[in-house]
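Why should sequence recovery work at all? Because a backbone constrains its sequence more than one might expect. Tight turns favour small or flexible residues, buried strands favour hydrophobic ones, and helices have their own preferences. The token representation captures these environments compactly. In the example below, the structure is given first.
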């Protein structure tokens, strides 16, 4: 049973200023999504499912479905604000998606095997896909809530052009996730890597601190918990125009209740992405360097 890759591509990209999921960054016009799918195919994934929005559906299908369908099984689902359980209502003023937990939940009917979750605008590197594929190489684990996560050293995940937010991870001696805390306004300055705590005071994070970049490995059992959690979330936040249902919060809660385990697969590769418009040039150059080193062909899909 080959794992599936679920790509979250429905985000608005307000800081970037455009649909960065569809931005051509590679030397032959490739998007970051192209590199992720390419790496997933080489790591043994059997299917890719995209989470997109209806207003980019036509353009998305034109760009991706045609070139990928002969290489890997391709499907997609729509994440829309009004796709919520019966009995709840949405304010007409809400424009923000419901978050990563809701996005994953949209794929419940499409995925029956172990699967990876990634962001569309993040470059994770080939070794990350191989690590997760190997974790589920024997198919569904004996324990249905046996999940995993690819973790990165925080020093390999920063932007030179602004603050970032990261899920800071604490693990036990066996590398199982014990705690994940969202830290915001993280940047590198003359003192090292710092973030702003709840009192807006600067606190230092060690360079090799493991953080989540939203690269998760799940079994289909996660969908049950996401459904229950989303109903609870809506009960308290349906009227909040900006509240989001985040997957790290769901996972952290299940770990603390001992209802799930998450093995952290440490990746020493360098993450990069396009959080800000100013990141674009650097990403283009990094991809070009990887091509020049022979890690990727000049044209991925020729």
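From this structural description, the recovered sequence reads:
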């Amino acid at each position: 049973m080959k794992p599936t890759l679920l790509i979250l591509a429905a985000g608005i990209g307000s800081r970037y200023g455009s649909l960065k999921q569809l931005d051509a960054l590679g030397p032959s016009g490739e998007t970051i999504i192209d590199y992720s799918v390419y790496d997933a195919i080489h790591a043994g994934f059997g299917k890719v499912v995209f989470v997109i929005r209806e207003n980019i559906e036509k353009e998305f299908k034109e760009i991706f479905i045609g070139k990928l369908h002969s290489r890997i099984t391709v499907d997609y689902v729509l994440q829309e604000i009004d796709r919520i359980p019966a009995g709840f209502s949405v304010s007409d003023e809400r424009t923000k998606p419901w978050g990563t937990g809701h996005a994953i939940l949209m794929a419940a009917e499409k995925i029956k095997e172990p699967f990876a979750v990634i962001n569309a605008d993040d470059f994770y590197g080939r070794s990350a896909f191989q690590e997760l594929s190997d974790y589920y190489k024997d198919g569904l684990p004996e324990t249905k809530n046996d999940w995993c996560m690819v973790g990165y050293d925080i020093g390999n995940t920063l932007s030179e052009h602004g603050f970032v937010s990261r899920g800071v991870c604490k693990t036990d001696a066996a590398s199982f996730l014990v705690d994940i805390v969202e830290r915001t306004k993280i940047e590198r300055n003359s003192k090292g890597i710092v973030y702003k705590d709840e009192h807006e005071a600067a606190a230092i994070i060690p360079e090799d601190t493991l953080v989540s970049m939203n690269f998760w490995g799940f079994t289909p059992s996660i969908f049950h918990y996401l459904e229950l959690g989303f109903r609870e979330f809506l009960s308290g936040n349906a009227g909040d125009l900006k509240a989001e249902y985040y997957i790290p919060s769901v996972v952290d809660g299940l770990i603390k209740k001992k209802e799930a385990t998450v093995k952290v697969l440490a990746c020493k590769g360098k993450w990069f992405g396009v959080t800000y418009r100013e990141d674009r040039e650097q990403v283009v150059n990094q991809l070009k360097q990887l091509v020049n080193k022979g890690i990727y062909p000049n044209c991925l899909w020729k």
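A few observations help interpret the result. The two ends are 28 Å apart (CA to CA).
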